[in-house]
Amino acid sequence: MFQVLRFSGARVLGFGVVTVGLAGLAVFSTFAAQAPGDAKLLLPTETRLSNIKQLTFGGENAEAYFSFDGTRLTYQSTGEYKCDQIFTMKIDGSERKLVSNGAGRTTCSHFMPDGKSIVYASTHLGGRECPPVPGREDGYVWPIYDTYDIFRVGVDGKGLTQLTKTVVYDA
């Protein structure tokens, strides 16, 4: 069972530093000159952003959030998985690491203040396979599954602990 959230925009701006879209994640700074190789990421009418660097390539990538020390990102990505999974990486795009277990669909990952763990929502206890995805007749939709629960995992991807156990959308 799922409900649907509808989004009209293709890009979301979060925390003034990470742009999240279906194509990829990009980090930017307003203080440095833009690298010539990333010119395609800057719209001709953009006057506020510079030094944009694309960090992800392939799949759908979204919901990126900084660690409290500002050195890493956590985000969800399809890439080599059919459903969104949770990854971390350094803010330069290096050291990409899967921290979810690769089953079900995941969302809403955030670093904990101590920097040792991440919380995220997952449907993996409702089934290892991807839950059904709604059609896109009305544009992009985000399904809300009642099998989402919240989990904590170490930044190394070990020690998965379930934090909620309800039959509602927990994320």
In short:
The protein is mainly β and 171 residues long. Helix content is 0%, strand content 40%.
Describe the overall structure.
- The chain is mainly beta.
- The protein has strands at 2-6, 11-14, 18-21, 25-29, 50-54, 61-66, 72-77, 85-90, 97-98, 106-111, 117-122, 141-145, 149-154, 161-162.
- The strands form four sheets. The protein has a four-stranded antiparallel β-sheet, with no helix packed on it. A four-stranded antiparallel β-sheet has the order 6-7-8-9, with no helix packed on it.
- It is globular and about 45 Å long.
- The model is unreliable at 1-24 and 28-37 (pLDDT under 50).
Q: Calculate the terminal CA-CA distance, rounded to whole Å.
A: 16 Å
CATH evolutionary superfamily of the domain at 2-10 and 58-162? TolB, C-terminal domain
Number of helical elements? 0
Largest sheet: number of strands, sense, barrel closure: 4 strands, antiparallel
**Overall pLDDT metric:** 81
Class by SSE composition: mainly beta
CATH T-level topology of the domain at 2-10 and 58-162: Neuraminidase
Order of helical and strand elements:
EEEEEEEEEEEEEE
Which stretches are low in confidence, meaning pLDDT under 50 for 5 or more residues running? 1-24, 28-37
Net shape: globular
> Compute the gyration radius: what is it?
17 Å
Level-1 CATH class name of the domain at 2-10 and 58-162:
Mainly Beta
Strand order of the largest sheet: 2-3-4-5
Helix content: under 10%
CATH architecture of the domain at 2-10 and 58-162: 6 Propeller
Quote the beta fraction: 35-45%
Number of strand segments: 14
